[in-house]
Amino acid sequence: MNNYAQDVKKRIYDAGFEVEFEPDTHDTMNKQVRNAQLQQFNFILVTGEKEKINGTVNVRTRDNAVRGKVQVDKLIAKFRLFRDEYTRDTENVTFDS
After folding, report:
1. Which of 72, 74, 84, 88 is deepest in the core (most CB within 10 A)?
2. What region holds the Anticodon-binding domain (predicted)?
3. Is residue 96 domain-resident?
C-alpha cells in the first residue's frame, strides 16, 4: 500500500503542492488522521486497497469532514483551482465537480 501512497505523494508534489507522508509509522490509520488534524493539515488523504484499484484517494478535512473518494488527477486540478482562484474556505468546497 505504501507504494501507491508514495506515487500519490509524488504526483501531488510534482504538481507543485506541499505534501507529507510518513511511510514507516506504527500508528493506526485513525491515529495518523488524528495527528494530521492536530497539525492543522488542510486536507488528509487516505489510501487503501480500494483507492489503489480505482486510482483515487479518500479526502478528509482537518475538521474530519469526509469529502469522499476523488480521482488523483481531479484532486490535483481542484488544488490548482484553489491556488489560482485563491479559494478561502477550501474545507467546505465539494470535490465531486
Report:
1. 72
2. 2-79
3. no
